[in-house]
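hey so i finally got around to running both of the ones u sent me last week. sorry it took forever, my laptop kept dying halfway thru and i had to restart like 3 times lol. anyway pasting them below in the order u listed, first the sequence line then the structure token line for each. didnt double check formatting much so if smth looks off just lmk and ill redo it

first one:
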Amino acid sequence: MEENIKWTKLTRCAGCGAKVGAGILAQLLDGIEVHRDPDLLVGFDKSDDASVYRLSDELALVQTVDFFPPIADDPFLFGQIAAANALSDIYAMGGEPKLALNLLCIPEKMPQSAVHALLRGGYGKVYEAGALITGGHSILDEEPKYGLSVTGFVHPERLLTNAGARPGDIMFLTKPLGTGVLTTAAKAELCPPAALAQAYRLMATLNKAARDIMVRYRVHACTDVTGFGLLGHAVEMAQASGVALTLDAKGFDLLPEALALARTGILPEGMYRNRTFAQPFVDAGQTELAVQDLLYDPQTSGGLLIAVDPADADALWDELRPSVPSAQRIGKAADYTGGARIILR
């Protein structure tokens, strides 16, 4: 295999766009018995980001796993993005990552230098998070894939889930949308290099700063926005919390090049899966179709979707903006009275 490898050409899907759709996943899990344990605080029954198990009155273990095919041709960058994406699940639960294990699928003839660069990217990002990679597992596979199993810790009374949003909560998002469209365009060599570079910077950025700020406020619910798109994850939060979310379609930070590409019809396959799942629960009103497309766009290593007590919203906003420049105030939660779970205004 040549040294100058186009990693994204080795696989059909890129990044979190390769995830099984939320609707199909629900069917696959349907009927599987969920065993109960009084110390299992969060399992898979609410489609949350990680499992949480109470070890004591003051300590709970947070555990997640995430891996995907190449999102970038540079193996070091791919490693960074895959690691940042896996770590986000811990941050979304309000936790701090501590240990990680590599998950690596690699073609037999992949050059050693390329694999080494991939692993260095992951190691560096985990170290940046204040955690350690202590081993892992690798197998031979025609399609390369990489990710992490991550373990973290949180106080049992301060853990966050996607099921705690309350009527009146103010909604925040901490990264722009549109990376799935840009990486799809890049596979067809239709993405402007500067736009793709910006997308890679966003995907490789940890959600650590947003997490460290939000845990100082009365945040009631949180999830990270990844393969199911903003609206897919918002629907899961609204359903799990028993609320409706009214979102300002003009309040989202949409990557401009992604919006332009969406208007020409360049869209990832995962966007259509996400629309199929979430659209029955969404009242899009007069929102432009291309904007809707970006709200369904599968994100890789996307931002945190946060529901915060209205009394803390302004203070959170003031603290987020200097440290998380792409933070957006996007709407609010309300009582659910039937009909759509998500209303776009």
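and the second one:
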Amino acid sequence: MKKWMLAICTALLILGGAGCQKDEKASNKKPAEHEKAPEKKEKTELKNTYPLTGIKTNKPTDARVFAVMVNNHQKARPQSGLHKADLVYEVLAEGDITRFLAVFQSEKPKVVGPVRSARNYFIELSQGFHSFYIHHGWSPEAKKILSGNSDVDSLNGLYYDGTLFQRASFRQAPHNSYIAYKDIMKGLKKKGYDNKDKIRPLPFLNQAEAKALTGDKADKVLITYNHGENVSYTYDSSTKRYARSSNGKPTTDRETETPIEVDNVFIVEAAHRIIDSYGRREIDLTSAGKAILLQCGKAREVSWENKDGRIIPSGTGFVPGKTWINIIPTQPGISKSVSIE
């Protein structure tokens, strides 16, 4: 492969963000005497890096992070906009059903939803990115935080139902609240919040570190949440990504049918405690603990830590790309809740 072709391929790999992909090797073949040697083209240098994906770009990377509470009830599937999220936290709410905190920065979804109500630990996770926090309703604990803490920039669908938030006719409440990106921006402006921010990057491996990754083969991981609700990730060696499923059904975007595929799957243990008769929980997101990190078709046992409000792997980093973080209870824990093939 000639040098100018190598440069283009390298740039495409960087833009694609697949930290696990291998480099092409340049050809040593010289042009024949009657052939004109191709002109040398300068390699395009991408000057910026998206802070939450580690992907190189020449576009501005200072857009304000926004985080949306997304419903994961069976009646809310398939959801909208998750394929555009840089990072998603998946955590239990009440009962056996998880809820998503979808964190957006490098890409803008046309619409997100169904939007669901706030919980205090989701607010804590959102604040790790100084996010514009978007929710529809709240628990008593979340209401105390959002009503009395001016440090949390938020938008509540209870006050903008039918204006910024729209009810879809194809689903029933509480599984039918949606918000468009343009209305997120309207809400940001309406409330006088900044739309730009200097965002600290997540820890990412460089190209050499990503190539040197070791670990056990991990083509598929199954996570069981209590009574039968499960999540699986299946590795595709051609894309170098993990495709997500719920109870065996692929997770896709409702409008575009785009599959949810991620470069990092981070499974962490945290202590959960039921705090009321409704089944609401407190979750310890500060004490650190056991974790499994899946990247490039390999699984590694690591530890997690909370660094400035963010759940990250201790002593290592993510490969550039999208990340899904599954937080599971310490009881029964990773050893009983997670199966890797």
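quick thing i noticed on the 2nd:
Residues 113 and 146 are 21 Å apart (CA to CA).
anyway thats it, ttyl
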